[in-house]
Write a structure and sequence with these properties.
Elements (H helix, E strand, L loop, with lengths): L1 H8 L10 H14 L6 H15 L3 H17 L4 H10 L2 H17 L5 H13 L4 H13 L2
Helix pairs in contact: 2-3, 2-4, 2-5, 2-6, 3-4, 3-6, 6-7, 6-8
């Protein structure tokens, strides 16, 4: 009986660590869905980003994106994604993640306030300054 009472106050187990591939792919999906229009253009951009980043086949890319779509839809918050990325991706490589996110935001040619707000949050949670995020966005724009 006493063990049951103490178990009520015991800290909950840490959620299982999220693989950085799923975390990054999940963020790409989340930013694409932010404007309510998850378009074929954004999906193709996500696939291109994942294939290049992880040097995987088109089939593996599709599998990874589809797994991330399912996970993203059920994920209650964004912090779980960013925490996993911060734990596994060195700070100097996180700007590449921000650039990838900007690629998806800009893929459909339209930026809205929801996407901008989420990008500011993501940059902050990944330890990237607003100024560095703006530089990432400019690099993406200059490469389009």
């Amino acid at each position: 009986m006493i063990d049951k009472i103490f178990s009520l106050f015991a800290p909950e187990a840490e959620p299982q660590k999220l693989d950085d591939r799923i975390a990054i792919a999940g963020l790409l999906v989340r930013i694409a869905r932010t404007d309510g229009d998850y378009s074929h253009t954004e999906i193709a951009r996500i696939d291109r980003i994942l294939a290049k980043r992880y040097e995987i086949t088109p089939e593996k890319t599709t599998e990874l994106r589809q797994e991330a779509e399912v996970f993203e839809k059920s994920a209650p918050d964004t912090v779980r994604f960013t925490r996993s990325i911060k734990d596994s991706v060195p700070h100097d490589e996180r700007e590449a993640v921000i650039e990838a996110l900007w690629e998806v935001v800009l893929a459909d040619g339209v930026r809205n306030t929801y996407e901008d707000t989420l990008m500011r949050l993501l940059a902050n949670l990944l330890g990237i300054t607003d100024m560095d995020s703006a530089r990432c966005r400019q690099r993406v724009l200059s490469n389009q």
